[in-house]
Amino acid sequence: MPRTTALADIRNIGIIAHVDAGKTTTTERILYYTGRKHTIVDVHDTKDLKSSTTTDYMEQEQKRGITIQSAAVSTFWRKKKINVIDTPGHVDFTIEVNRSLRVLDGAVVVFDGVAGVEPQSETNWRLADNYGVPRICYVNKMDRSGANFLRCVDMIKKRLGARPLPVQLPIGSEDNFKGMVDLVEMKALVWESDERDAVPVAHEITPDLADKLGISVPSDRKILADIEKFRSELVDTCLEMDDAAMEAYLNDGTVPSAETLRKALRKGTITSAFNPVLCGSSYKNKGVTQMLDAVVDYLPAPTDVEAIKTVDQDGNPNGERKSSDDEPFAGLAFKVINDAYGALTFVRVYSGVLTKGMSVMNSTRGKREKIGRMVEMFAKEANPIEEARAGDIIALVSLAETETGDTLCDSSAPVILERMRFPDPVISVSVRPKNKADQEKFGAALGKMVRADPSLYLETDRETGQTILRGMGELHLEVTLDRIRTEFNVEGVMGQPQVAYRETFTKPISEQYVHKKQTGGSGQFAEVWITFEPLERGAGFQFVDETVGGSVPKEYVPSVEKGLRMQMEDGVLAHFPTVDFKARLTDGSYHDVDSNALTFEIAAKACFREAIRKAGPILLEPVMKVETVTPADYLGDVIGDINRRRGMIQEQLERGTNIAVVSTVPLSEMFGYIGHLRGMTSGRASYTMEFSHYDPVPKNVADVVIEEANKARSAPKA
């Protein structure tokens, strides 16, 4: 089947922004104006779960009014095919932005006209920098109270280190936002109403434009008075991209045409020399079609971006694969959605043609996959297709071996495409099924969620037996359990993981123990003399046999060590393992008939229990090395909070415009830290944590831990 849309006519774009900047509303308007939808649903109308926007179709998204999972939709504008991915803005779901940006050729970064550059805008911008994704900026919500276009442009420059280039200027703001000045065409576009089908009226740019349109606010009039200044800046910047136009302008004073400016804007955007800035109000239906024109005019087709890099098994670059139908097939699985009915694997096709029934190689895992159903996704709707070509974003149904980040390719020309980089989880909780009977079903559902989301980690705590789920934030983990309930019909319960405390003792002691048991028939006898000595932190356990003259036969000495190793796992204070001590077997006695390996094992266990109680036992807690990176404005709050958590500040380091505070903090004090830190710093701080060492627990804290541990141990088992 021949190609229906030329590769140069495809735009794979993402809509990215901070939470609540208007990404989903903008996507809804895009679908309406391109004819893919005949109605518009607003985000705030979905919380009753009776209706949903196209891309926020999950129950969790409707309830919270936020995007949780990136959704793909395809549409056409000016005979160009636009594949749009609406991504989440909440920091807990950065993984969705990460993997979307990895497979997109361009992005529209939406900014709230009031708030400007927000913390997650910074995170997403850095991700786009990492993947080299060209961007245009769309300053949304110009109708909101406090909206300020120039302040937002200034924040893009200062906070993101970008080079914003306004190609539009707002006409009015807040309640009096009427439209925009198109600096390329030098026309004023004015909407007479907020109706979704209202068409802007074009006005000539004249000195009395502000008076004509009833613009009275001084700052809004100033923008219109400076139109020539902004136009001049646009022309000068564009001429940097076009030597011939620059020469004509300098020699003959030839002003570049709108078409020349558009070509230069496209070149500058694709090379990331600058970022065109547009404005509008998606909710009030102003500026969306102009933004679509900018997507077509300025953002790259698959043929405009660098060829995808290929790597070896260790991730080292070893070549590239060009975006063309004539190359062998290669695609990247960038997302897996699992539900009760199977897996849906989203794939960006980078080269070649993929047809239904083909057998392909998963080169990342060395496994073969048979291509069954292929679909083009329109949010949750799956439309069957027979083939996919370079530049397409599609979904494959029920692949058995493929996970996020895997490469699918033609087995006769195997390659591994450049992998994605995933953030490390920052928070962990214990999880279990609400009903014990659902244990197997719950475990399977958890496994599927982890397979679909590389920012989730699952492990079993060997000491506590708890199932520990790690993720990007409390909301991330909460939504994961909620999705297990709605998608797999099994309820889970979330708790805090138990801190792995340790016990040790503070003074040496020698203890003698005789194990003697006489019942009918053969008896039991063993006597041991053991000296216990504390060691430095981290030394572990050492055992030494110092007996002489065969007082304890050599064949029974390993049983003494075995008994000690078993008993040290069950401490005397709160039943946590005992660490950092040395045990010296100094003497003992045995009976020719009644002694055996088991009797010496029992004697060693009892000797340990008796001795440790008299040796000043204490509780130890894991202490973490924590590095908190924060803007300087919040440094005092961050340090104060660490001190309240029994933390010790080690050092402060400069990290660009931020400051990294290095400290050691007990693990038990770190639960809930990420939420508190984000609240304290408006979401602008982050932290990393790793194990450092064990330290004694203060007595008041130890008393509580011991009491709770003993209470839990004596509680009847469910």
Tell me the layout of helices and strands.
Blueprint: E1 10-16, H1 23-33, H2 59-64, E2 71-77, E3 80-86, H3 94-103, E4 106-112, H4 119-131, E5 135-140, H5 149-160, E6 164-166, E7 168-171, E8 179-182, E9 187-190, E10 201-204, H6 209-212, H7 218-225, H8 227-239, H9 243-252, H10 258-270, E11 275-279, H11 288-298, E12 308-311, E13 317-321, E14 330-339, E15 342-351, E16 353-355, E17 359-362, E18 367-370, E19 374-378, E20 381-385, E21 387-389, E22 393-397, E23 407-409, E24 416-417, E25 427-433, H12 439-452, E26 457-460, E27 467-471, H13 474-488, E28 492-495, E29 502-505, E30 509-517, E31 524-534, E32 541-545, H14 557-567, E33 581-589, H15 597-614, E34 617-631, H16 635-644, E35 648-655, E36 658-666, H17 673-680, E37 686-696, H18 699-714
Parallel strand pairs: 1-3, 1-4, 4-5, 5-11, 6-11, 32-33
Antiparallel strand pairs: 2-3, 7-8, 8-9, 9-10, 12-13, 12-24, 14-15, 14-23, 15-22, 16-21, 17-18, 17-23, 19-20, 19-22, 25-27, 25-28, 26-27, 29-34, 30-31, 31-33, 34-36, 34-37, 35-36
Helix pairs in contact: 3-4, 12-13, 14-15
